[in-house]
Design brief:
Layout: H1 17-38, E1 62-65, E2 70-72, E3 75-77, H2 82-85, E4 91-96, H3 102-109, E5 118-121
Parallel strand pairs: 1-4, 4-5
Antiparallel strand pairs: 1-2, 2-3
Length: 132
């Protein structure tokens, strides 16, 4: 007798153990990563504090943005006279109090006087331990 139907095609069954191992390894990595984040000690950020700096020891030219106004190398200067005072300078160091809003600094530095200058923000680091 002859068969009218074709031979059934034998399909190989996929090995699911490889998929399961991959999922388990991903879960282990996920729990290791999140466990380290949750058990990490809290990091306290201490902001720098500036008070009564000797202007002589800081880089020149230094523009100090204070509550009273602007000082260039220790000399008070009006905002209108800034372009004339910075004439010929290629680099300017800027120091601003930490409690001043960032918008004050951005507004000041967006002025056309600063367009061709290399600007560097000066930060002051203080030791938390006082000498005896």
């Amino acid at each position: 007798m002859r068969r009218l139907l074709p031979e059934p095609e034998i399909r190989p069954k996929p090995d699911t153990s490889l998929f399961i191992v991959n999922i388990v390894l991903l879960l282990i990595l996920f729990f290791l990563a999140t466990g380290q984040l949750m058990n990490a000690p809290p990091s306290a950020v201490e902001l720098a504090e500036t008070s009564e700096l000797p202007v002589e020891s800081l880089p020149k030219p230094l523009l100090v943005v204070g509550e009273e106004g602007l000082e260039l190398d220790g000399t008070p200067i009006p905002t209108e006279g800034l372009a004339q005072a910075l004439e010929g300078a290629t680099r300017l160091h800027v120091l601003i109090a930490r409690d001043r809003p960032a918008s004050d600094l951005v507004t000041l530095l967006s002025r056309p006087e600063f367009a061709d200058l290399e600007l560097r923000l000066v930060t002051v680091r203080t030791n938390s331990q006082e000498a005896p």
